[in-house]
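Deviations from the work plan: none for this task. Representative record:
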Amino acid sequence: MKLLKILATTTAVAVLLAAPAYAQTRIALVVKSLGNGFFDAANKGAQEAAAELGDVEVIYTGPTAATAEAQIEVVNSLIAQQVDAIAISANDPDALVPALQKAMERGIKVISWDSGVAPEGRQLHLNPSDIGLIGETIIKLAADYLPEGGDVAILSAASTATNQNAWIEAAKAVIPEKFPNINLVSVVYGDDDSVKSTDEAKGLIASYPDLKAIIAPTTVGVVAAAQVVTDQGLIGKINVTGLALPSEFKQFIDNGASQAVALWNPIDLGYAAVMLANDLVEGGEAAPGATLSMGRMGELTLDDTNSGAMAPPFTFDKSNIEEFSKIY
Ligand code: RAM
């Protein structure tokens, strides 16, 4: 009798130990590529959201190079792991659709954030800020320091990146009316790779002797361009601007290679993406006009493509980059 009781108790304890303490929701935060400080900051916010929710685990993952092919492999492995949700910043709007559709067929909730997937490959998309506003901001950042106008070039990320391509289109659309003396001479692609971005920046400088500004709407490209301008002794001749992470870019505001750059808060963006994915896991519906929770970031109201924007970007210059560089 006594032995039976001991056995029963031991078995119960063993079962308790084997079972998870509580049901966990696993949300994969898939980024364009690992090793990018912007995405590391987003992961900080994602982990913060997981801690706040309590029963959520965030799996931070992505390929080493920013390509759609490599992201498809990551997605397939997450399907095999039966995660509850995938929140992806995509290297291509279309190439990932079949893999993500397979995920959705298996009951996995799918959202894109930062860099979007075509509507048929995800349930909703979270833009960091309004696309038109970012497009106008990146041109204005250059134009503000070019009263006479002049030649500018764009150094982008991957040529297929949804977010950069949308911002560049918006930038081109706003130039004729609002910035008529800005002459966009070229758009080149550094693939969010430091070496390629450096080569592309050097190429622009060699090809366009009258270049007055390089606009890089990528945190990787903007650092590479500013380093090239610094190394080639072109500070004061070519102003580097675009979207930059203050912690990585402060040195180039300090040395004058750049007058000002912009960005939204990447920590908030990762946080908001996890909150939205979790809302879907908990039964939230993504549909035009629907409102979903972004936790402390408020609510996201979806437009007719099931997209919404988080918040306006901030501008960083000599007056404030020091303060922000300590945060992200
Ligand atoms: C790079 C990535 C990312 C983009 C930022 C501004 O880190 O391309 O997608 O949002 O720059």
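The longest strand covers residues 182-189.
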